[in-house]
């Protein structure tokens, strides 16, 4: 019975992941067909190349992207192996399909506003794929090859590829599109970084007190919800005395209340605080 229940949970979790991945891919498709392509903004990546070719030669976006992704899959199979290729195959095939079924329409006439909104939507979609470790293929493949064989960081080679695609805007649509493409890449990166590290942040607080560490711990536990923590055995740098350091992990909004408790008990306590992007395997 337990085995059957576990299997059902695994199936449900896989279906939920699949839904999220499809949502992420569709968000990317919407950013391309509704916001970037109608204003001829090629904001990097394989989708950017597709927009450039569509602008220059009127080749359908989905067809170009599918061909590019198939080429990248072949290169991945040759240079990166079966496992990596299997991981990127789903996104490589489904994203062109999403772009094909999503209407190409100019929903916002203002080019600048369209670039901004498209960048946000693109960043959210890509963040969802990152969360579930599902690359969308395309220009993510060359950086992985460069890293494997030439030890070049993914971020560096991807930056160069995106820069080359952005430069293509000058030929295809002019300088305005070029600068908007750069803006779009920058905004998408900010959105991705914020979603990855800025949502649901936790606060980590290190506390040292000469004589009140236990009182601080008990008072915090009794008055603050949603916390976790542990002790560290430390040694004073100058005194070399053995001491205890209390580490507390909590929601960011609790920081002020905890600080007030510590100061009320021991105004000379040593406090070190920082924010954490994620906490796993705990109750926080």
What's a concise summary of this model?
With 284 residues, the chain is an alpha+beta fold.
Brief descriptors of the model:
284 residues, 12% strand, single chain, alpha+beta, 64% helix, 10 helices
Helix and strand topology:
Blueprint lengths: L1 H35 L8 H13 L3 H19 L2 H20 L9 H21 L9 H10 L3 H19 L2 H23 L4 E7 L4 H11 L3 E9 L6 E10 L3 H11 L4 E7 L8
Antiparallel strand pairs: 1-3, 1-4, 2-3
Helix pairs in contact: 1-4, 1-5, 2-3, 2-7, 3-4, 5-8, 6-7, 7-8, 9-10
Describe the structure.
There is one protein chain. The protein is built from 10 helices and 4 strands; from the N terminus they run ααααααααβαββαβ. The two termini are 31 Å apart. A 4-stranded antiparallel sheet has the order 2-3-1-4, with helices on one face. The longest helix is centred in the N-terminal third of the chain and has 35 residues, at 2-36. α1 (2-36) crosses α4 (82-101), α2 (45-57) packs parallel to α7 and α9 packs antiparallel against α10. It is α+β, with helices and mostly antiparallel strands and 284 residues long.
């Amino acid at each position: 019975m337990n085995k059957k229940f576990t299997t059902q949970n695994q199936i449900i979790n896989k279906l939920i992941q699949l839904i999220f991945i499809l949502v992420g891919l569709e968000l990317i498709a919407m950013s391309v067909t509704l916001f970037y392509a109608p204003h001829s903004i090629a904001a990097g990546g394989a989708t950017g190349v597709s927009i450039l070719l569509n602008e220059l030669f009127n080749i359908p976006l989905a067809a170009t992207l599918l061909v590019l992704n198939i080429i990248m899959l072949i290169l991945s199979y040759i240079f990166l192996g079966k496992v990596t290729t299997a991981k990127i195959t789903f996104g490589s095939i489904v994203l062109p399909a999403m772009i094909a079924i999503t209407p190409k329409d100019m929903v916002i006439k203002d080019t600048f506003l369209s670039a901004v909104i498209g960048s946000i939507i693109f960043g959210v979609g890509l963040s969802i794929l990152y969360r579930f470790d599902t690359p969308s293929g395309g220009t993510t493949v060359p950086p992985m090859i460069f890293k494997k064989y030439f030890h070049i960081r993914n971020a560096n080679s991807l930056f160069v590829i995106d820069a080359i695609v952005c430069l293509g805007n000058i030929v295809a649509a002019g300088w305005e599109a070029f600068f908007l493409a750069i803006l779009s890449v920058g905004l998408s990166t900010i959105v991705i970084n914020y979603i990855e590290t800025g949502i649901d942040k936790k606060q980590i607080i290190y506390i040292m007190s000469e004589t009140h560490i236990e009182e601080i711990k008990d008072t915090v536990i009794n008055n603050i919800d949603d916390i976790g923590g542990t002790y560290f055995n430390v040694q004073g740098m100058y005194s070399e005395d053995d001491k205890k350091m209390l580490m507390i992990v909590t929601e960011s909004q609790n920081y002020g209340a905890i600080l007030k408790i510590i100061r009320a008990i021991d105004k000379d306590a040593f406090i070190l605080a920082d924010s954490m992007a994620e906490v796993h395997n705990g109750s926080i």
